[in-house]
Specification:
Order of helices and strands: HEHHHHHHHHEHEEHHEEEHEHEEHHHEHH
Helix content: 40-55%
Number of strands: 11
Distance between the termini: 16 Å
């Protein structure tokens, strides 16, 4: 946070904070409310007397500090947290937290306790009384798994306490945190299990259809995400109470919220459950502006960024315009030599957020290496930088973003560092090598921070 302040940065955008499972994607979380125990700071637990330095040092978290070893973290971290839990004495602050978050924490702690007791299998594979939430079966598990539930509540308390302290520190430094929420929840989540009425499920809590995207030039059979789809008519009847609750919680964690796949509020793509590809899906009408009128009525003028990337219909563009939320512009989408692009900076409105790239893109340096000759020639002509070495060009794209009329510019740290494909965060539709890159101490230098601050000042972004 001190480095962000020194670099003249006013916003810090992060990926979703929820607990992750298989594949480690923050966009497939076990809960839309809970925090990921991986983020609990162990040094703070040492300071609180709940762990010792020797205990933490004895755990193997992996040999490469620049990349996360999720398997080793999973195998080692929870043993440490359990030791801390057994030494923890609940106090009034803890009891207040549990009571304040009771509405989601009870379901989440029970869901995770049952899931862990069954070897991690999805709730759709649980015995029918648990899968369909028969009260007698749930009460039996509440008694049987009480200690496990308390352990999970302890993790959420520690996460929330530490995150609140971090956010307060950021805000005192003049830095606002941009959070990120997926439009959909994961099927294997406490949200879907505890609230089946919100989703397009049959009487056995089996999905009728699931989310994804249709076939296009990038994916011949489309993208099959598998998330449950909302029963939007039911949400409307309740006054969108679940969405209001979700967003209200988000604005306790973040100052600004980026909503992923915003076009799904206009129309969503429904794929028959059980299909192996996304080819047979159909577009259906979403809640549209009605949801956001309700959001404004209940929450006021909240700061939301609409992730409006991809193919946009006129109705999607009108929805974004009607909400008043800024949309997104990505420079890596701008230089397509086959056609004029509204991602080129001279086409930007003020009310937008420009990125050199997002978590789903390559780094600028890696992207430059992969560009075809025609696109590269267009970029060089547009930026007049044919003589600039490629390893220095990321800074020119940063200048292009900061110098645009976009009200907000967000630059991935990897681009400030001019790193290549080895620092890419995510390659969509793949498993195994995503979400692993990590910043290491000393990588951000005072020289780099001074350069960042100079550019922010030069382009009036201080």
């Amino acid at each position: 946070m001190d480095q962000l302040e020194k670099g003249g940065e006013k916003y810090w955008q992060i990926l979703p904070l929820g607990p992750t499972g298989y594949g480690d994607s923050p966009y497939q979380s076990f809960s839309t409310y809970a925090g990921n125990p991986y983020f609990i700071d162990l040094e703070t637990l040492i300071e609180e007397g709940l762990l010792t330095k020797e205990e933490c040092d004895s755990v193997d978290f992996g040999s490469n500090p620049a990349y996360v070893d999720y398997e080793k973290i999973y195998l080692g971290r929870f043993d440490l947290l359990e030791k801390a839990f057994h030494r923890f004495v609940p106090d009034q602050a803890y009891e207040t937290f549990v009571e304040k978050n009771k509405k989601w924490l009870e379901d989440y702690s029970l869901y995770m306790a049952i899931k862990n007791s069954l070897g991690g299998i999805a709730w759709s594979e649980w015995e029918a009384p648990l899968k369909t939430r028969q009260e007698a079966a749930l009460e039996e598990k509440r008694v049987e798994l009480k200690e496990q539930m308390d352990f999970i509540c302890f993790q959420q308390y520690e996460f929330a306490k530490q995150w609140e302290k971090l956010k307060q520190y950021a805000n005192e430094k003049g830095i606002q945190i941009i959070g990120d929420i997926p439009i959909y929840v994961a099927f294997d989540s406490a949200d879907a299990w505890a609230n089946p009425e919100l989703f397009q499920f049959d009487e056995n809590s089996t999905p009728l259809a699931v989310a994804g995207c249709p076939p296009d030039a990038f994916a011949a059979t489309g993208q099959l995400w598998g998330n449950p789809l909302y029963r939007w008519d039911y949400h409307a009847q309740t006054g969108y109470v679940w969405w209001i609750s979700r967003l209200r919680h988000c604005f306790t964690l973040y100052d600004v919220v980026r909503v992923d796949h915003f076009r799904g509020f206009d129309e969503y793509y429904a794929i028959p459950y059980g299909d192996k590809t996304a080819e047979n899906g159909v577009w259906k009408k979403g809640p549209g502006i009605d949801l956001f009128h309700t959001v404004k009525k209940e929450l006021g003028d909240v700061n939301i960024i609409a992730e409006d990337l991809g193919y946009l219909t006129e109705s999607v563009m009108k929805l974004v315009e009607d909400t008043g939320y800024p949309g997104m512009k990505v420079l890596q989408f701008a230089f397509d030599s086959r056609e004029e692009s509204n991602y080129l900076p001279h086409n930007y409105p003020h009310n937008c957020v420009v990125y050199t790239g997002t978590h789903d893109n390559n780094t600028v340096r890696g992207w430059l290496d992969d560009m075809c000759e025609e696109d590269n020639a267009l970029a060089e002509d547009y930026m007049n930088n044919a003589d600039t070495p490629k390893d220095e060009r990321p800074w020119e794209f940063i200048r292009l973003a900061l110098g645009s009329v976009a009200d907000l510019a967000v630059i991935p740290l990897q681009d400030y560092l001019c790193l290549g494909t080895e620092a890419r965060i995510n390659l969509p539709s793949t498993l195994g090598n995503n979400w692993k890159w990590r910043l290491v101490p000393g990588q951000v230098t005072d020289e780099m921070l001074a350069k960042m601050c100079h550019l922010n000042k030069l382009f009036g972004r201080l």
